[in-house]
Amino acid sequence: MKKGRIIFLLLFVVAVISAAVYTLQFLYAKEQAPEARYAVEAPAMGDIMKKTVSSGSIVPRKEILIKPQISGIVSKVLIEAGEIVERGDLLAVVRVVPDMGQLSSAQSRLERARINQDDAQRSYNRQSMLKQNGVISAQDFEQAETFQRQAQEEFRAAEDNLQIVRDGVADRSGEASNTEVRSTVEGMVLDVPVEVGNTVIQANTFNDGTTIAIVADMQDLIFKGNIDESEVENLHEGIALILTLGAMPGRTFNAALEFISPKGVEDNGAIQFEIRAAVALDPSDFIRAGFSANADVVLDERLDVLTLSESLVQYEGAQAYVEVQTSPQQFERRDVDLGLSDGLTVEVLSGVALGDSVKQWNQPKFD
Fold first, then answer.
1. Cα-atom radius of gyration of the chain, to the nearest Å?
2. Mean of the per-residue pLDDT values for the chain?
């Protein structure tokens, strides 16, 4: 019986000692656990821009399609894409392929004019002899003379008409010729979609005609893109755009919005509105037509204002606040009024000042 009590007491002592050792180890480990420490960040003066992005391309404001004045076959092409041309420069020459019906009609007209001219000449000769003999009056002779001149003019007009139908130009037209295709504007040739031997058609009621060349002023470019319906009401003419081109990395170009389409178009389930903006270029800048571009559309901006990282701001309901360091790793709450935000940085209207240290509450470090 006594032996059993001794064993029980020994077991009890061992249990008490084990509990005491465990407690001491727990308290020691707790004292050695690292304390959470928070980094801080100071507000700064800066600019904030609220932007949206529009994708599109750079194109000339006007691309002029140069078309022939007659139908025929291209016999000469005198320019290539990339060349600079002036108004009136010769671009190509077209050889006429006459319409057989028009040619036959022109030949018939010329023959009738020849008959009338011969008849008028014979009448003039008779009237001239009669006048010399004093048989007719001066008035009768003048009528014969007028008839002769009219017949001669009609004959020359019929000759010109036949030459135009057959050759595309009349001898009396001098340098003017509708077989010569000349530039109507000055600028750069963007494309020459025809070659020697191609058949071309003049523009008419039923046909747009064949384009001989496309000419544009490459110093007058616009950005043409689309913007989502959720952003379109924030835009207005004159708003600034910042363009980046995939083909010209590292460079940006300024532009000013000048057109917002009044009608949206559905694109992949979303309504898009076309926008156009004038691109500001230096005389030395050259951008090729059709370059793809992204436009940062500046919806609103604040310049030289107190800013703070959005990641430092906490919210309690609708009230924004931050925690400002009062002493090392000691912080107090301060309510703040915020202004414009670009999603990463926000304008601070009140609550903190330059020199304050704001807690990075979501980035603790452990010592």
1. 45
2. 84
When pLDDT is averaged across residues 26-52 and rounded to a whole number, the result is 73
Number of domains in the chain: 3
Q: How many CB atoms lie within 10 A of CB 240?
A: 18
Say yes or no: 188 and 234 in one domain.
no
Write down which residue in 275, 302, 329 finishes a domain. Answer: 302
Give domain status of residue 20, yes or no: no
Q: Report the predicted TM-score, pTM, of the whole model to 2 decimal places.
A: 0.61
As a whole number of angstroms, the distance between CA 120 and CA 236 comes to 74
Distance separating alpha carbons of residues 235 and 246, to the nearest angstrom: 24
Give the model's pLDDT for residue 142: 82
d(CA 337, CA 172): 84
Q: Of residues 13 and 121, which shows the higher confidence score?
A: 121
> 58 vs 3, which has greater pLDDT?
58
Residue numbers of the domain that contains 328: 37-47+304-366
Alpha-carbon separation of residue 189 from 67, 85, 176, 186 (angstroms): 14, 7, 23, 9
**What is the number of H-type helices and E-type strands within the chain?**
4, 22
